[in-house]
């Protein structure tokens, strides 16, 4: 099922790219956590299990012709390193690793973002093309990068912010989607743009919509 969806998704994007030759489009095959994205599967999902699950997904992406792989919403480093090692050793594809942080700026379980990036790089010969953070409000990503050593900070190439200031536990139990305050979201996203010299991909995650994206697009246009 998931493999069919992956193949169809890439075919749709290839078709769009063929019809949009005036704009360069990079097609990235996305992997996600193997359990609840807001829970830590460390110790539950092993490196070997992750390699098996992601192996078939990356194989399908590679056969369909993606340009790169990404793994989003990472807490469990075994999932990240399994995906990176597959991209490197089996398919020679670039890969982007995006973590999720909590309201204290740390990964669930207490690991700092800096430590997570260093550890994935250490275990995979720094193969990851760039790192990122998704599904956290820009305010909490600022906490994660503020005191980070500059060599690690420069490894961050992607931010896709959640719209809400609520914790993931609160969001998990919420019956409504929280769009948050867009003016706060954009202001704090702008702060991040100034803190991250290696940033190349920006966007929204849960709770965001075209209004959020339009607001940061205006900002990017003004500095590009
Ligand atoms: Zn999200």
UniProtKB/TrEMBL annotation:
Give start and end of each Hcy-binding domain: 1-220
Please provide the Gene Ontology terms (biological process) for this protein.
Answer: methylation
Keywords from the UniProt entry:
Metal-binding, Methyltransferase, Transferase, Zinc
Q: Is Methyltransferase among the key words of this record?
A: yes
Coiled-coil annotated residue ranges, if any: none
InterPro entries listed in its UniProt record: HCY_dom, HCY_dom_sf
* Residues that, per the record, bind Zn(2+): 135, 205-206
Superkingdom per UniProt: Eukaryota
Q: Which GO terms describe its molecular function?
A: metal ion binding; methyltransferase activity
Which metal ions or organic cofactors does this protein require, according to UniProt?
Zn(2+)
Write down the PANTHER family for this protein, in alphabetical order. SLR1189 PROTEIN
What is the protein's name according to its record?
Hcy-binding domain-containing protein
State the organism named in the record. Penicillium flavigenum
Upper classification of the organism: Eukaryota, Fungi, Dikarya, Ascomycota, Pezizomycotina
